[in-house]
Amino acid sequence: MHPRLQQDLDDLPGILDHTNQLAKGFLAGLQQRPVCPPLAEQELNAEDKILREEGHGALAALDDFWQRYATGLSASAGPRYFGFVTGGNTPAALAADWLVSTTDQNSLLSHDTIAAAIELATIEQLKALLHLPADFSGSFVSGATMANFVGIAIGRQWLGLQRGIDVAQQGLAALGPIQVLSANAHSSSVKSLGMLGIGRDALQSIAQQDNSEAIDITALEQHLAATPGRPTMVLASAGTVNTATFDDLPGLLALRERYPFWLHVDAAFGGVAACSPRYEHLLQGWQQADSITVDAHKWMNVPYDSAIQFTRHLALQMQVFQNHSVYLEAPTLRPDNYLHLTPENSRRFRALPLWMALKAYGRNGMREIVERNVTLARRLGEGLAASKGFRLLAPVNLNILCFALTEIEGEAEAARDRFLARLDQHGVVRCTPTHYAGQPGIRAALVNWMTEERDIILALESMRTCRSEAI
User: Fold this and answer.
1) Nearest to 317 by CA among 105, 158, 124
2) Residue 279 and residue 288: Cα distance in Å, rounded?
3) DSSP run (H or E) holding 265
4) What is the mean pLDDT of residues 204-212?
5) What pTM was estimated for this model as a whole?
6) Element housing 6 (H / E)
């Protein structure tokens, strides 16, 4: 064995103890850490961009990394990171994720680990939490992009089989053009269309309802009536990125009865609202969708990377993703034969953090996170609406705010960007830029399990200060 490897093997308990100390220090300082470190802190030294002939061992590498680059790590796991839709790590999920790396299981149905059984149990518990029916199967994938990819891939296969074509075997050319209809398709779904050979140009935007990001059901029906016989997918939103708007799923299901199409519901963060009696009505009808995306590393607060794809068409899923090899188990139809259900062959044991979190906090714990985040998002919205220099671009429907600066003439986008740059420099709260209804706007998404009232107070103070300084 190489001497450095032998040295680290002998000192493995010490290495793990030291790593634990670094991790504890990071978490203890999370509240004070900038949500966006300065760009200069996000750069590598020239010497760390090249490979050395000889290494210095794990402890030296750990200390070198932490001393040089810890200041370049953001507080994205903390309570005031409102950029994108990024959750944190509950203690149970974090502990489980450490064990995932330690035990290093390949979570296929390989009959040499319990990983596949825990994944199947987690899927069943998640269906119970979100009120999804028994006929759905599910698999863990790396994120919402891959969950959307899997759902659309199964839909592509379904469209082919309606016309006697096995797209997975014969190729997309045998089916011909597909039309994909949506009012607000997430960019990851558009990316998936490119990867799947359907093509980004297949996406056609349907009009939105007045003063809403939801699809206009009448406009969709008119389009479907005008394109009879076209292989069609409809991509529904259960929580849009700007305003957390939900499409009218019962209305879409009624249309599907008259114009058969594949209905995919992107519920990456919004689907978790189904665990709350206050908000489960927003998901009415998703139980009849063909495929669904839910992202665990958003509102369920497990570490990256972790999302779940659900479908009612397990056999079609296996047709798409089956993997034939003499040394692997055959693609028998069962919901835990994961080798044949997702794009990955080797798969990290990413179900364990969510399984552990559900075990640790139960249905009530998950519901409390959702309801607290929504309450705080509305308080933040009220505070901004009452503050000079801000205006809401849309009502706070759930846990996302979309707002803009006021009193800006002719340079709204530049002023917004200056404000966000100042906010990043202030380091208290992180928001991201967007456009809504043709206007430059700002997004704030609340999904972190630690966010409390005091964080809203701090966020408002920082926003007000940066508003006055940045213009």
Assistant:
1) 158
2) 18
3) strand 262-266
4) 96
5) 0.96
6) helix 3-10
- In this structure, what token pair is assigned to residue 151? 């759902």
Quickly list H helices, 11-114. Answer: 12-28, 58-69, 91-103
The token pair that represents 385 in the structure block:
């609406």
Does residue 371 contact residue 363 with C-beta atoms inside 8 Å?
no
- Rounded distance, CA 460 to CA 382, Å? 10
DSSP β-ladder status, 291-295 and 262-266: parallel
The β-bridge partners of 402 are 443
DSSP letters spanning 418-463: HHHHHHHHH-S-B-EEEEETTEEEEEEE---TT--HHHHHHHHHHH
Cα 96 from chain centroid? 19
Cα-based distances in Å from 96 to 182, 354, 356, 357, 437? 37, 8, 6, 8, 42
Pick from 246, 253, 263, 350: nearest CA to 313: 263
CA 345 to CA 31: how far, in whole Å? 39
Asked whether the beta carbons of 229 and 178 are under 8 A apart, the reply is no
Say what the pLDDT of residue 376 is. Answer: 98
Contacting residues for 94 by C-beta, under 8 A, at least 6 apart: 303, 353
What is the DSSP secondary-structure string of 229-252? T--EEEEEEBS-TTT--B--HHHH
Q: Which residue has the tokens 């213009």?
A: 471
Lowest-confidence pick of 82-96, 143-157, 408-422: 408-422
3-state secondary structure of 222: helix
Q: Which of 57, 56, 55, 52 is nearest to 11 (CA)?
A: 57
End-to-end CA distance of the chain: 61
Count of Cβ atoms closer than 10 Å to residue 305 Cβ: 17
